[in-house]
Amino acid sequence: MSARNRELFALIPASLLVTVGFAAVFIQEDELISDASLTYGGVFLGLCFVAHLIIRATLPDADPYLFPLVALLACFGLVMIYRIDETLAREQAQWFVIGLLVFAATILLLRRDYRVLERYRYTIALVGIVLLLLPRVPGIGAQVNGAYLGIDLGPIAFQPAELAKICIIIFLASYLRDTRQVLVQGARRFAGITFPPLKHLGPLLVVWGAAMVLLVFIRDLGSSLMFFGAFLAILYVATDRASFVVIGFSMFAFGAWFFASTVGHVADRIDAWQHPFDDELYEQVGGSYQIAQSLFAQADGGVAGAGFGQALIETSNGSPILPAAQTDLIYALITNELGLAGACGVLVVYLLVTERGMRIAMLAQDSFSTLLAAGLAAVFALQVFVIVGGVVKLIPLTGVTLPFISYGGSSIVANFILVALLLLISDRARREAAGR
Amino acid sequence: MNKPIYRVYLVVVVLFALLVAWTSRWTVFEAEALRDNAKNRRELLDQQRIDRGPIRDRDGNLLARSVPGPQDTYSRRYPENPLFPHAVGYAYVDRGEAGLERFYSDALVGDHGEITSLLDQFLARKREGDELRTTLDPGAQRAALDALGGRKGAVVVMEPDTGKVRVLASVPGYDQNAIRDQQTFEALNRDEENAPLLNRATQALYPPGSTFKVVTAAAALDSGKFTPDSTVDGNSGKEISGVPLANSGGKDFGPITLTTALTNSVNTVWAEVAEDLGKGTMGEYMERFGFGADPPIDLPADEKAPSGEYRNGRLLSPTSQFVDVGRMAIGQDKLLVTPLQMATVAATVANDGKRMKPWLMERIVDPDGRTREDSDPEQEARVMSETSAKELQQMMGNVVREGTGTAAALQGIEVGGKTGTAEIDPDTDLNQPWFIGFAPLDDPQYAIAVTVERSQGGQGGTVAAPVAQRVLQELLG
C-alpha cells in the first residue's frame, strides 16, 4: 500500500473519535445544542481530508502516520473545546481552516527545497527574537497571570512565542550544521569535562542569554525551559557531546535559580507550585488557586474519569472552578473526565508524534534536515512536557498551550507549520532513501 | 547522528513517564487526600447539580422538594410552618444534611451503588433522585402539635404491628427554609434554652416517671413470678435499698393486686416487685424493650439517643452497683428515656409482646414510578409471651378506665395506658408529665407516648393524657 493510502486509512481513528465525541456531547446536552452544531464535526473531518489531498498531491513520499496522529489530537481537542463552549469550538474550527491554509502555503512555498531557509537564518532568528519580545511592547503586549506571552491586536490575540519557537529551531539547526564539526574538534578537556572551544562558545552563550532574557522579560519559566531544552537537544544531536548538555543545563538551572529568586513574578509562580494549598497564596490573584483546582480536578477524575461532559468547570454563579480550562488546564479537564487512562492515551499520541519526528530526523540525509527535524520534534515534545508538567505540578505551571488540543489560534497555526516542515523533510528523506 | 537522536527520544520517553507518574499521583495515590482537602468544594458543587427526590407524608403532601436554580443547580425548599421539621431534617450544600434528608440521602440523590452509577455515567444519564414516601401522618401530627399548644415536649405515635411511625412531634420546631441563612442557623444552634433543632422525640432524655412501671410489670408477669392478681404490700414508706420510699401523696394501700397497683400507680408495690425480680431480670427485660441501645429508627445515629440508667452522662449497665433497682422500677433513680423508647414500650405491649423496628420510610420510589424499597415490618425482639402481653394490656386498660389515666379515655373506644409524673424540681413544683398507651384496647391500632417538659405542677393524668386523647381521637375518630 502506498504511503498516502496508509495515511488515508490512518485517518479512520480520528474520524471515529470526532463522530463519537460529538455524538456524546450531543446526547449529553440534547436540549441545548442544535443539529447545526453537529455539522462542525463533519466540516472538520472534511478539512482533514482536504489536508490529506494536499499532502497526496505535493508530498507523496512523506511519513504516512504523522498527519493522522496530529488529526487525532486536533479532533480530540475540538471535541473537548466543543464540550466546554460551543462558540469556542466554532472559533477553533475557523482557526483550523486558517491553520490548514498556512500548512498548504508552507508546503507549496518550500516544496522545491526547504533548505533555502538556511540562507535566511539570521533574518529568521531576528524575526524569532522580535516575536518573543513583542508581548513587552507597550500597547499591544498583554499580561496574563503576570507572564507576558500574548499580544492583543484588537480582534486577534496572539502568542508570538508559538511562532518564535519554529524560527529559533530553524536558526539553531542551520547554525549548528555549520559549527558542529568545529565544536567537537575544538573542544578542550578541562577538569575531566569537555568544554566547547571558546571561539564558538559565544553564540551558545547568546542562546543561553536569550533564554534568560525570556525568563526575565516574558517572565515565563516554562517557555524558556522549552526553548533551552530544544536547543540542548539539537546541540546534543549535532555534537554527540553529553558534557555540552550538562554544562548547558547547569547554566540554565543556575540562571533560572538566580532569576527566580530575584524576579518577583517567577518567584510567586514557584511559591504557588511548592505550596498550592497555602491560604495566602490560594487567595492571591494569580496565586495557587489555579494549580490547586487543577489537582482537585484530576483527583475527581480518578482512574476511569468522571465521564465525558461530567466535569465541573464553573460554579452555578459562573465563577471558575477550573480556570482556563480550554487552554492552560485542558489536560486537567481531560484527566477529570477521562481519568488517568484517557490522559495516558493522549500522552501516548504525543509520544507517537514525537517518535515520527525523531524517525524523520534519523532518515534525513543531510545534517540540516536531521537537526531541524530533531529540533522540531524535541520542541514539540518539550512543549507538551512543560504544560502537562505544570498542570500535574511536576514543574511550575506556565501559560504555553497543549499543541493541537488547547484552544488558541497561534498555537494551531504554528504547530501546523511545524508539521508541514516535518512532512517536507520526510518527503525528501524517504524519496532519497528509496533512491528516486 | 542517529544515536544521539535515539537518546534524545529516550529522554523524552522518560519525561513523559514522569508525566504519567505525576498524573497517577493525583488521580490515584493522593486522590483521597485531595478530595478531603478543605479547599476542594467539588463534591458540594456536584451535589448542587442533582435533582434530589421529593419527600412526602403518607397522604402524598410534599415535605421537601427541589427547585431549579441558576446553571443546572437545584436547592431545597420546605413547606412553610412545617409539621415535621425534625423528622424530615434539611439538605443544604453549605449546611450539610439532617434527619431523613441525611439518612436517605443516597436514595434521594439517586445513588444506587457503583454499577448502576457507572452505567448512568456511560449513558450520560442525568442523575435523578428517588422519592421518599414517609409514614408520617399530617392530620395526627397537627393534632399533636395543637394539643401541645406550644409547650415544649414530644409526641410519638406508632403502629404496633408494623412499627410505622405516624407522629413524631417535637416542640419547639423550626423553619427548615430559614436555616439556609448562616446567622439564623447559628442563632438556633445557640438557643440552648429552647433547643429548637433538638429532636425531642428521639434525642431528648427525660426521667420516665411511672410510665416505666409498664416495663417492670412486663418483667414481673413474663418472668412467671407474678400474675396480675398477685398481692403485694402497698403501704407507703417501705424501705427500698435501705431508704424509705413514699407513695404519691404518702398513701397506704395495704396488700393489693398488681392490677390495682398499676391502676393507682403504687410506687412501693412496683419497687418491691423489682427488688424481688432482681437487677438481672429487670436488665434483661429492659434490653428486650430496646433500652441501652440506639433505637433502630431510620434516622441518623447522632439524632437519636439510647434510653437507660445514666451516670455522669454515660449509660450504665442495669446490673451495675450504682443502680437502685427498686427506684429504677418506678422510673426514678438515674433513668433517662426518649419519648420514642416509651412509645416502643407501649407498642410492644399492644403488639402482644413483639417489638417492631420503627419505620419513618413507607417506600422509596424511583423517577419511573418503580418501588425500590419498602418498609417491611421487622421484628426486633420477642419481649414477652402473648399471654403476658394480653394480661398487661388489660391492666393498662384499667388505668384509663378507672385509674390515673382517665383523661385519655375516648368516647366508645377503650384505651390502654399508663401515666407518669417525674419530679424535676420539687421545690418549684416542676414536673415532667407523661402518658404512654394504645388504642383500641381489644385490637390496638396505635401506640402513643406523650411528654411535656418542665410543667408547673402538671401531672401525667392531667397534662399528658389529654394530649394523647386528642391525638388518638384524631386517628380513630
Note the topology.
The complex is a heterodimer of chains A (436) and B (477).
Chain A: H1 3-10, H2 12-28, H3 35-58, H4 66-84, H5 86-110, H6 121-133, E1 141-144, E2 147-153, E3 156-158, H7 160-185, E4 188-190, E5 193-195, H8 198-218, H9 221-239, H10 242-262, H11 264-274, H12 279-283, H13 289-301, H14 330-363, H15 367-391, H16 409-433
Antiparallel strand pairs in A: 1-2, 2-3, 4-5
Helix pairs in contact in A: 2-3, 2-4, 3-4, 3-5, 4-5, 4-14, 5-16, 6-7, 7-9, 7-15, 7-16, 8-9, 8-10, 9-10, 9-15, 10-11, 13-14, 14-15, 14-16, 15-16
Chain B: H1 2-29, H2 31-36, H3 42-48, E1 55-56, E2 62-68, E3 74-77, H4 85-88, E4 91-92, E5 96-97, H5 99-103, H6 105-108, H7 114-122, E6 131-134, H8 138-148, E7 153-158, E8 165-171, H9 182-190, H10 213-222, E9 231-233, E10 238-240, E11 243-245, E12 255-257, H11 258-263, H12 267-289, E13 308-311, E14 314-315, H13 325-329, E15 335-336, H14 339-350, E16 354-356, E17 361-365, E18 371-374, E19 379-382, H15 386-402, E20 416-425, E21 430-439, E22 446-452, E23 455-456, H16 460-476
Helix pairs in contact in B: 8-16, 10-12, 10-15
Mean pLDDT of chain B: 91
Side-by-side strand order of the widest sheet of chain A: 1-2-3
Structural class of chain A: mainly alpha
Largest interface: A-B, 59 and 45 residues
- Biggest sheet features of chain B: 6 strands, mixed
Number of strands of chain A: 5
Shape of chain A: globular
Order of helices and strands of chain A: HHHHHHEEEHEEHHHHHHHHH
N- and C-termini, Cα separation of chain B: 100 Å
CATH superfamily of the domain at 139-173 and 199-363 and 376-476 in chain B: DD-peptidase/beta-lactamase superfamily
Strand order of the largest sheet of chain B: 3-2-1-6-17-18
Global morphology of chain B = elongated
CATH topology of the domain at 139-173 and 199-363 and 376-476 in chain B: Beta-lactamase
**Count of DSSP E strands of chain B?**
23
CATH class of the domain at 139-173 and 199-363 and 376-476 in chain B: Alpha Beta
Strand content of chain B: 15-25%
Q: Biggest sheet of chain A: strands, sense, closure?
A: 3 strands, antiparallel
Membrane topology (chain A): Multi-pass membrane protein
Transmembrane segments (chain A): 39-58, 65-82, 94-110, 122-144, 156-176, 197-215, 221-238, 245-267, 329-351, 371-392, 404-426
InterPro entries (chain A): FtsW/RodA
Subcellular location (chain A): Membrane
